[in-house]
Amino acid sequence: MNFEEIKMTQTYTIKEVAERFDLTISTIHYYDKQGLLPFVAKNEAGYRVFTQSDLNFIHTICCLKNTGMPIKDIRHYITLCMQGTSTIEKRKLLLLAHKEKIARQQQQLRENMQEVDFKIDRYSSVAVKEEVAGEIAFVTQEKKALGLPSPFRQ
HTH merR-type domain: from which residue to which, for each copy (predicted)? Predict the structure, then answer.
């Protein structure tokens, strides 16, 4: 047997799949109940038996989930996959739309990172205590002028 034949005859237990993808067994059961794993067969004893091609699908499911795709959209994607080649364009459009969402999230993360970097730089400043004390004084005066309590404990 060559390597390809060995891979095609290899099966995995739910525990092995959970460990490989850093998922809990209950998460895999949940995914199955949500219709994300229609490709997974069960053996005579009723246990799920995972193949290499199943692992490839699960890898994609994890990728989509980790990038914020809702379960209903992942289910739709998997359903399209199970329908064969006639749905390739629909799958592509679904993934392109998801990619756009990921790109927007990445931009927002970059902007948020800039704010975090700004704060870190500020707290590394020699004059940080004076700057923060000045801000506290400003906020306290602002709240007082508006008849609001100061949020600071001093």
Answer: 11-80
Written in H, E and C, the secondary structure of 63-85 is: HHHHCCCCHHHHHHHHHHHHCCH
Q: Parallel, antiparallel, or unpaired: how do β-strands 48-51 and 41-42 relate? A: antiparallel
Q: What is the pTM of this model?
A: 0.79
Cα 54 to Cα 39: distance, rounded to the nearest angstrom = 7
Residue with tokens 């500020």: 122
What pLDDT digit, counting tens, does each position of 74-114 carry?
Answer: 999 999 999 999 999 999 999 999 999 999 999 999 999 99
Amino acid at 43: N
CATH architecture label of 3-111:
Orthogonal Bundle (1.10)
